[in-house]
Amino acid sequence: MAKGELLLEVRAEEIPARMLQPAIAQLATRVFEELMARDLGPKEVETGFTPRRLLLILKGLPAKEPDRTEQVVGPPVRVAFKEDGSPTPALIGFARRCGLEPEELERVTTDKGEYLAATQSIVGVETSQLLAELLPKLLREINWPKSMVWGDGYGPWARPIHGIVAVLAGQVVPFELFGVQSGAQTCGHAVLSPKPFTVRGAAEYRRKLAKLGIVVQPDERRRILAQAMSEAAAELGGQPVEDPQLLDKLVAICEIPGLMHGSFDADYLELPSEVLTASLRDHQSAFSVEAVRDEEDDESGEPPLLPAFLTVMDRSDDPSGRVRVGNEWVVAARLADARFFFHEDRKRSLEERRGDLAHLTFHEKLGSYQDKAERLAELAALLCRSLGWSEEEASAAQAARLLKVDLTSEMVKEFTDLQGVMGGIYGREDGLGEEIWTAIYDQYLPASAEDSIPRGRTGMVTALADRIDTLVGIFGLGLIPTGSRDPFGLRRAAQGVVRIALDGGMPVDLDLLAAKAARLYGDKLTQSGEEILESLRPFLFDRVRHVLGLAGFAYDEIEAALAVGGNNLPDLKARVEALHAVRGHKEFLSLVLSAKRILNILKDSEEYDLDEARLVEPAEKALFAAFADLKGEVEELAAAGDHEGCLRRTAGLASVLDHFFAEVLVMDEDDALRRNRLGLLQAIHRVVGRSARLTEMVVDKAEHRAKFGD
């Protein structure tokens, strides 16, 4: 047993895999915060879980709370004494509660006036006593996605609790939770090793469970499983098909990371690999095995699958082979179902199925998927024309009409994760052109920050049109996502728009596209086109900030570029990249400081005309000459998309501006001089803000001087 060590284990009936990690993280955070608030912060925090237990280990806990003094404020002086100076009942009651006489109280001045107060010495509570009160409270407060009650009304909690280990420095922390008393006894696997045993510390706990094959740390179970799978697949001449989410699930559904590998009839390999993998993953939580290519093999396409699968069996061995036989029997039945669905779907082509979309509702107020398909065809064609991609217009319109047809297929009804993918496969089988079937296959890309965007122009156009149509339709009903609710996945859709436009180099006018999408809905929307754009723009720009932030750009670079427009996303990215490239240069940073000064001078100013003839000081004449010399060049560079060149050229004004501000009084008493100088600054302000609003850039003046010696 270790001094200052808390071992907390809660054993329950099997908790769903998806709930385990959030629950233990929540518990550990709450316990840590509560202890820190009482100056009892642990030196180490360790967590773990299995399907039947949550584990929390804290090390380095003090034996008790530190003693402390605390000032308790009582009644105000004005109500503490009677007219004759004797204490009022309010003062007498406060003094009694503090264990003092009224004359022993002190006067303190607060922002509300003068009060009477008592300074008390508080003896710290024993850590064990505090934990006995704290742990059952925090365990009850775990926020489960779903909970239940059991027995005589115990709960709510994720699953019925069977046992609690709560040991601090070898001694039981006594408390009761849902009728279960804490103690020092745990047990092994619920079926294989249910006999209870006593533990007095974390080391003994881990050692005794390890002898029973139980691994309480999920990271260690993951390592063991991944290694065992790689070795088993290698013996078969292959490797596991990569699937991190499935591995996380297997880790969470076992205590004993035992590997089970089985096989199925090779005839099922006629099915597309996506179907085989989905069937094994969704129905049996099993990994597919793909062949390992030789160096001489053709690298085109995906490697073929082997007639084998790998999964966990929550035990160390399978001496009778029953686990394997049972899994193989279920896999064979599921693959037979998948083959039946595949062949049923293949009886009609995607084009022949297109009419079925009329019976599939996109949204109760927005019509059917057939309505959506026709809107997408028009949007895709508009996109192609606006981008000058005339060769892709016909294929994009055709792909758009077929994009959602696989939602009516038996295979997608069975494996919803394969929507889009199955449509692409069926399109390929129907003999559609590669640009069309790949567009259907890739329509939901990118689904995450790591995903690539759809292949080819047709794929990018249709995927972008699909997302814009959905965003405009749902926003058009006023159903804008809140901080915690996004039932239509609109943030993911908006991020897809941003990624496709940025990574695909598509200089599309998003406002124009959204306005067209709104018109295509006719009278179905409750919001006007302008109202939709007003709420959709900031929503999309938030995703732009997120995507560019992940790419490593600073927030002020992003804000400075967005401030002058974000409709053309590739151009926006080019402006952010330009700011990133020049922000460390002395002249540019000096220009930023001057731009901020100009903005402060021009604040609340009306528009003034600039008359060169009224420039009298040499410094202002020099500034005008420098400005006139670069104005046209800056406009040309910006129009050509050379934003870095534009920023570098405008930075040439920095020294002239510095000299101007040192020599010229802008707010001269002479009204004509003042108005003309303000007009000059207004003209310069417009030009230096051509690629970005420089005043959004964060430049510390003192740091600038220290760095460049100015």
Keywords:
710 residues, alpha+beta, Alpha-Beta Plaits, 5 domains, five-stranded antiparallel sheet, four-stranded antiparallel sheet, 14% strand
Rounded to the nearest angstrom, the distance between the terminal CA atoms is: 63 Å
Q: Briefly note the CATH topology name of the largest domain.
A: Hypothetical protein af1432
Corresponding CATH architecture of the largest domain: Orthogonal Bundle
* Beta fraction: 5-15%
Number of domains: 5
Q: How many strands, which pairing sense, and closed or not: the largest β-sheet?
A: 5 strands, antiparallel
Q: In CATH's first tier, which class of the largest domain applies?
A: Mainly Alpha
- Helix proportion: 40-55%
Q: Give the overall silhouette.
A: flat
Q: Provide a count of the helices.
A: 27
Low-confidence stretches: none
The structure class reads alpha+beta
